[in-house]
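for the recovery benchmark. tokens below, seq after
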């Protein structure tokens, strides 16, 4: 059983490496990856009475969430549009392994695109991240959960716009009730309940502790645990949705 798991993991890594070479290392994708964090930071920072240091959790949360969820949506839909996804189906791998490979690739992209600009801004502003290790842990699980969410919504899509539309319908409202722009306690009670079941809320919470030292370790561990649970659930749901989509032709 252990050997089978390692074999499946190697196959997933091979799929992730293939996706990274074909899609993520291309000039347009790299350019988007460089510009996106800057635009996210300006959107979050301009007009608010925040220092660069205080804005770092927001920058990290938005970048990990949007980059991790967007890139997988694009690649899977493009492969199905072009018909190249059929090549992967011909391989001796399960749909769960295929989805895992694409999740790993999306995670690596989201993780890298997040830590580089945050690290640069922290150095330029001479800001001290409270716990660099916990920051990396938070970004890891945030990027995994975001990648999984993107794949869940793109699993049945045959064109990019079919996946991006529902993804944006979910992501944009999530930004405003996740504690990014206003404390969750200031929201109406029914929105507070919704906020606490959203992955972005737990990304924000864990990053506020890792970067600023806000809240406490128990809150951090709970948030990371929720993100890990979402990452696993999204992986399973994406594989099932993809399987049902293929059965329908």
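predicted aa per position
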């Amino acid at each position: 059983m252990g050997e089978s798991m390692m074999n499946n993991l190697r196959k997933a890594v091979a799929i992730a490496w293939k996706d990274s070479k074909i899609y993520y290392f291309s000039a347009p994708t790299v350019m988007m990856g460089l510009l996106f964090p800057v635009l996210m930071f300006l959107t979050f920072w301009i007009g608010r009475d925040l220092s660069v240091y205080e804005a770092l959790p927001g920058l990290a949360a938005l970048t990990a969430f949007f980059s991790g969820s967007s890139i997988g949506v694009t690649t899977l839909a493009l492969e199905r549009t072009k018909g190249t996804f059929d090549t992967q189906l011909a391989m001796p791998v399960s749909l769960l392994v295929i989805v895992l490979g694409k999740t790993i690739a999306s995670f690596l992209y989201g993780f890298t695109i997040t830590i580089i600009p945050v690290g640069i801004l922290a150095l330029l502003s001479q800001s001290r991240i409270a716990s660099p290790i916990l920051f990396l842990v938070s970004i890891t699980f945030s990027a995994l959960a975001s990648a999984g969410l993107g794949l869940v919504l793109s699993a049945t899509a045959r064109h990019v716009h079919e996946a991006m539309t529902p993804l944006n319908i979910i992501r944009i409202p999530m930004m405003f009730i996740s504690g990014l722009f206003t404390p969750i306690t200031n929201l109406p009670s029914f929105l507070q309940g919704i906020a606490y079941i959203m992955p972005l809320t737990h990304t924000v919470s864990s990053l506020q502790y890792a970067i600023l030292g806000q809240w406490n370790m128990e809150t951090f561990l709970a948030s990371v645990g929720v993100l890990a649970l979402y990452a696993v659930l999204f992986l399973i749901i994406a594989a099932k949705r993809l399987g049902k989509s293929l059965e329908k032709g």
